[in-house]
Amino acid sequence: MSFDLLISRIKELRNPTVAGLDPKFSYVPEYIRESFLAEFEDPLYGAAMAVLEYNKGLIDALCDVVPAIKPQAAYYELYGWAGMKALKETIDYAHEKGMYVITDGKRNDIGTTMEAYAAAHLGTVNIGGKEVAPFDGDALTVNGYLGSDGITPLLNICKERDKGIFVLVKTSNPSSGELQDKKIGAEAVYEVMGQMCEQWGAELPGKYGYSGVGAVVGATYPEQLLELRAKMPHTFFLVPGYGAQGGGARDVAGGFDKNGLGAIINSSRGIICAYQKEGCDERDYAAAARREAIRMRDDILQYVNL
């Protein structure tokens, strides 16, 4: 299934990380912003095209080091229809460079509405007898808290088109425990959601032992990450919270299995804003991102035997 492709790329590059392309306009180097805003009359279009240019530079610098990107849909929706164009072209460009794409949309609905989300982000739409893929990401983050009604519409598309999903289980934000740590009988809500991921994933087995139904489990809760790795042996983890949110390499180590597989660690600002942290020339932004991605990889591999 879809995560076989991701895992193969992780093994090939020996790097279990993903670069989150969450491009606030202020993150884009000033020389790119000024150029595109001057070129286009519509500021939303100019901003979206500046973001696309920024993303392409990042992808060029990262594609032989980092196996995947994770564009957060909100940062593209921010620019209206032009932002959606930038998202689609970012996905296409990453695919051209051999990268796996996780669309971070956290979609959550039921029935035909969820079918529409699934078709938009992972599937195809029939237009005049022709099947076309609107966004064509490889995986999509989803919210499973509507239960199976919100997940089942995705499973057929995942099976038919070799795609994957990452279900929110134990998220990295500080207030996640307000709901996710509550008990259902003797188990926390996040544990129950993890069990459901294992059940849903049984329909999408993979050659590495991980199904096409993954889970989002935050680096900011290392004890729960370790606990869930033991309880969810067939579920691949997307782990946010490394770097800017406070999680470190030692914290994420519990998400991996004995073969160094089972998880991919996200960094967004840490990579795409590395030039700001370094204080280097903004025209060196892509090279700075590459340097940070290599540093992150090496940091994690101190604790993960891949």
How are the SSEs placed, and which strands pair?
Blueprint: H1 2-13, E1 17-21, H2 30-39, H3 43-62, E2 68-71, H4 74-77, H5 80-96, E3 100-107, H6 111-121, E4 125-127, E5 130-132, E6 139-142, H7 152-161, E7 164-170, H8 177-180, E8 183-184, E9 187-188, H9 189-201, E10 213-217, H10 222-231, E11 237-239, H11 249-252, E12 263-267, H12 269-272, H13 274-278, H14 285-301
Parallel strand pairs: 1-2, 1-12, 2-3, 3-6, 6-7, 7-10, 10-11, 11-12
Antiparallel strand pairs: 4-5, 8-9
Helix pairs in contact: 2-3, 3-5, 3-14
3D structure, described in words:
- The protein is an alpha/beta fold.
- It has one domain: Aldolase class I (TIM Barrel, Alpha-Beta Barrel), CATH 3.20.20.70.
- It is 46% helix and 17% strand.
- The chain has 14 helices and 12 strands.
- Helix 3 (43-62) packs parallel to helix 5 and helix 3 (43-62) crosses helix 14 (285-301).
- It is globular, with a radius of gyration of 19 Å.
Unreliable segments of 5+ consecutive residues: none
What is the top-level CATH class?
Answer: Alpha Beta
Main beta-sheet strand count, sense and barrel state: 8 strands, parallel, barrel
The shape is globular
**CATH topology tier name:** TIM Barrel
Superfamily at the CATH H level?
A: Aldolase class I
Number of helices: 14
TL;DR of this structure?
46% of the residues lie in helices and 17% in strands. It is α/β, with parallel strands linked by helices and 306 residues long. The strands form 3 sheets. Strands 1-2-3-6-7-10-11-12 form an 8-stranded parallel beta barrel, surrounded by 8 helices. A two-stranded antiparallel ribbon has the order 4-5.
